[in-house]
Design a protein that fits this description.
This is 2,4-dienoyl-CoA reductase. By secondary structure, the protein is of the alpha/beta class. Helices cover 34% and strands 16% of the residues. Helix 4 runs parallel beside helix 7 (196-209) and helix 15 runs parallel beside helix 17.
């Protein structure tokens, strides 16, 4: 791809860039903590070395009331000093960086800031469950000056550009929308008045820092909120921003309150490119797009179709710190692609409590400083890794990178283990990219891979060290009557294709596995969208296949309890759309040939079923461990170490850290 459009030079105002791949803004959950500054510098420096043309910081609050937990705030001199060090480190690594200025408005949480949230109007936020205080004219003017001064700081501190966050439902976006701006003064009412604050800010920035310094505005292309800013208003606003002196528009979509997913794996690639394209056609400055542009093919396509001028993915840079370099060198097989799981990134920064950002598929992310200072082994060992799931793959890769001779054994004919089974779930097919990446890496590291092979205990005793990643087996609850019946099976047998579907299915267990399995089975009730569209184009309706009736029995009143906050609501919406019946807060009493008896405090009845699938947990597979642990140094990793939950992020990280520091990172 070295000659692709992605690698043509470009510019944003006076800022010349070597190619079109930027790194979008994202919070890492460590900003503002002086003890984490080395890690913050290491994170961005690695991406600078990885070829990012321009990186945009996570949002930096211009005032305390607009900030939050682990956000830089420009009223704190120590934070300013840290930001100066950060940009110097990026420049030292050969990169460029823009400072993003932000005010959370009604999305700010009083528990984090110690201050009442403020907004154009006192409209409660469904995200924070707080009603903000309405800003006075004097306070609005102070916010305007804080943004202007923030841009001045960005220039003086050495940042290569400044970006204003005016998307995703934050304060400047709130002023624009009639849903959150119901004022009747100079800053509310008509669209002209609702635009006033951001336009005054841009005008003030130009007066303060001159015409040559690059200014980017993060614009909401579509709020995905009924009754919010219209498409025509958005295009007009884009044109007015450019007229006031903006050098580029970075187009975001959706509010945090929107019911349309924007970053989940279920969102099709480049789903919002048409929104970016409409803005690009309305203005004469570069336009940047981001959401769901995470593969080389998608990135090249949106540029080729002239839908945008630059791409600014964020999470793909978590998955692979060398994202741009690998694209430019034509190494797609060596690219560790983002699978859009959100588990260790958005679920961390939007969860409670907040956790530092990592990456499920890339255990180095979030630990760059420690990785740069790691100590490699001085003696090469002969190492066996048993189990080719993600825990075993990560362990084998880390051991080979540490200079050891590694043999990986996998009992099945393919690598991936439970991670491969999970790739059967709708929108999780991308998991196979991770398996492909690790397999490619192992082959390049000269790891010997033996498929369809179960090593004997005697053979393993000839190695210097053994890592057992033998995974888990489904747990069959002995106290539940009827589990031995012929129509009862487990999630692994269904996902592997060993057992076909029934017609009336009851899934026992409403956690993440049970909910995903229900999604997998229920989706077979639908005609694939491509086929459906084909017939609709010719005015013919296509009949759905034979329907499967599906029920989930959840002991917890909260179905899919273990699924992260950014994707759980999407999964539950899909289960509802597909007609899956949820029995929440019910205990399973007995499985009979006719079905499953369930009860809660108020009722007891039988759900008819010709198939019952157990998603009742799992137990560690440690048979081999017991046979060799006294004869050869042996470590358990992944599910065989901790079967309490199937957590790929934890398994991959544990594999790496067992090699390099003999500690399992708590993910």
């Amino acid at each position: 791809m070295s000659s692709a459009l992605l690698f043509q030079k470009g510019s944003i105002g006076s800022l010349e860039l070597p190619h079109r791949i930027l790194m979008g803004s994202m919070h890492l959950g460590i900003e503002g903590d002086a003890h984490q500054l080395n890690q913050l510098k290491a994170f961005y420096s690695e991406r600078a070395k990885g070829g990012a043309a321009l990186m945009i910081t996570g949002g930096v609050a211009v005032l305390p009331a607009g900030g939050g937990d682990h956000m830089f705030c420009l009223t704190d001199q120590n934070h300013r000093d840290q930001l100066k060090e950060l940009v110097q480190a990026v420049h030292h690594a050969g990169g460029k960086m823009a400072l993003q200025l932000q005010h959370n408005g009604r999305y700010a949480k009083s528990t984090e800031t110690g201050l009442s949230p403020v907004a154009p109007s006192p409209i409660m936020s469904r995200i924070t469950k707080e009603t903000p205080r309405e800003l006075s004219i004097t306070e609005i003017e102070a916010i305007r000056e804080a943004f202007i001064e923030g841009a001045h700081f960005a220039k003086q501190a050495g940042f290569d550009a400044v970006e204003l966050m005016g998307s995703e439902g934050y304060l400047l976006n709130q002023f624009l929308s009639p849903l959150t701006n119901q004022r009747s003064d100079p800053y509310g009412g008509s669209f002209e008045k609702r635009m006033r604050l951001p336009l005054e800010i841009i005008s003030g920035i130009r007066q303060s820092i001159g015409k040559d310094y690059p200014v980017i505005y993060r614009l909401s292309g579509d709020d995905f909120m009924e009754g919010s800013t219209t498409r025509d208003e958005t295009l007009l606003f884009a044109q007015r921003l450019v007229a006031e002196g903006v050098d580029a528009l970075n187009v975001g979509v959706g509010w945090h309150e929107s019911r349309i997913p924007t970053v989940a794996a279920s969102v099709p690639p480049a789903a919002f490119a048409h929104i970016v394209s409409a803005i690009r056609q309305a203005v004469d400055v570069p336009v940047i797009g981001a959401n769901r542009i995470h593969t080389p093919e998608t990135a090249e396509a949106v540029l080729k179709q002239e839908q945008m001028d630059f791409i600014a993915p964020a999470r793909p840079w978590l998955a692979d710190e060398g994202f741009a370099n690998k694209l430019q060198s034509g190494d797609p097989a060596g690219l560790n692609l983002c699978i859009s799981c959100n588990q260790a990134c958005l679920d961390h920064t939007l969860g409670h409590p907040l956790k530092p950002v990592g990456c499920l598929v890339n255990p180095k992310t979030g630990h760059e400083w420690a990785w740069q200072n790691r100590k490699k082994s001085t003696a090469a060992l002969n190492i066996a890794v048993v189990g080719g799931g993600v825990a075993g793959l990560a362990t084998a890769k880390a051991a080979a990178e540490d200079g050891h001779r590694v043999t990986l054994f996998e009992a099945k004919e393919r690598l991936g283990g439970h991670f491969y089974l999970a790739s059967q779930i709708p929108s999780k097919d991308k998991f196979r990219n991770t398996i492909r990446f690790y397999q490619t890496a192992l082959e390049r590291l000269n790891v010997t891979i033996q498929l369809s092979t179960q090593p004997s205990a005697e053979a393993l005793k000839t190695y210097d060290k053994v890592f057992l990643a033998t995974g888990v087996v489904p747990f069959i609850p002995e106290q539940l009557k009827g589990t031995q019946l012929s129509h009862v099976t487990t999630y692994s047998d269904v996902l592997s294709g060993k057992v076909p579907f029934g017609k009336k299915i009851v899934i026992i267990g409403g956690g993440g596995i049970g909910s995903d399995l229900a999604h997998f089975i229920a989706s077979t009730n639908e005609v694939p969208k491509g086929i459906q569209g084909f017939f609709e184009d010719y005015g013919t309706k296509v009949e759905a296949p034979a329907s499967v009736e599906l029920s989930i029995i959840s002991r917890s009143p909260r179905v899919a309890k273990g699924v992260g906050p950014t994707t759980r609501w999407v999964l539950l919406s899909e289960l509802k759309r597909l007609g899956v019946k949820l029995y929440k807060g019910f205990e399973c009493l007995e499985i009979t040939k006719a079905g499953v008896w369930i009860a809660n405090e108020e009722e007891r009845h039988c759900i008819e079923a010709d198939q019952v699938i157990l998603c009742t947990g799992q137990v560690a597979n440690r048979e081999l461990y017991e046979l060799i642990k006294d004869d050869v140094p042996t470590e358990l990793v992944g599910g065989s170490y901790d079967a309490s939950e199937l957590n790929a992020a934890k398994a991959i990280h544990q594999g790496y850290h067992l090699i390099f520091d003999n500690e399992a990172i708590n993910i």
